[in-house]
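# nightly structure sweep
# worker-07 picked up a monomer target from the shared queue
# config: single-sequence mode, recycle default, output format = C-alpha cells
# input follows
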Amino acid sequence: MRLMVPLERQPTGSGAERVVILGGGAIGTMAADLCTVTGRELVGFLDNNKEPQTHVYGTPILGPFDLVERDAGLRAACHFIVAVSDAGLRREWLGRIAAAGARLITLIHPSVSCSPSACLGEGIMIFPFTTIYPGAQIGEGCLIEGHACVGPEVSVMPVCVIAEGAILGHRTRIGTGSFIGAGAVSRPNITIGEGCLIGANSTVIRDIPSFKVAVGSPARVLRDNLSLNPALAERSRQNR
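# output follows
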C-alpha cells in the first residue's frame, strides 16, 4: 500500500493544479464538485462510454481512459483522479496512470477533519464532514463518503469505498477493494477481509473473511462476493 506523507506536509491546493477525471458518471461528477471547492481547474473527463466532444454538466469529454497513456502533453499538464465505482477498474487505472508517469491527485473536501498523523494514499477522495483520526492509514484510490468516521489507527487498504456515515472503530482493518455500506459500524480491532461487501447499517462485531457479503446487526455472512473474486465466480458457474 503506497502512502503519501501525512496531511500536514502535503502541498495545499491551488488554481494552478489542473485535473482530468477518469469516469464521467455519478462518482465523476462528485469528483468534479471536489475540484471546484478545493480550487482546482477541471480540464475535462475521460470516459470509455461517452463520445468525445460531448459534455458532463458543461465539462468536455476529452476521450477514452487510455488517452492518459497516449497524450504526453495531457500527462505533463494535468493531475488525474480515477472516479469509477468498480474497485478492479479503479485499481487497474491507478496502476496504468502511475506506469505512464502521470500524476495522481488526492481531493479532500475543506470540511473534512483529518489528524496530522493520518497517512493518505494517492488518488483518494474524501467527501464532506468526514473525520479521520490519529494514526489512520487510507490506501490509494479509496473513496470516503460524507459524514464517515475513520477511527484511530484504522487501516483501509487500496480502492475501498467507505460509504456515507460509516464508522470504523479503533484499529479496524479493511482489506483491498472492500465496500462498507452507509451507516455501517465496526467494533474496535475488527478485520474485514479483501473484497467484502458490508451492508448498509450493519454492525460488525467479529472478523469477516475475504470475499464475503455480510449484513445485519450483528453482521452475518450471507454468501461469497463473486463479483470481486473471479476464481470463486468461475467455480460457482461450473457447479451449476
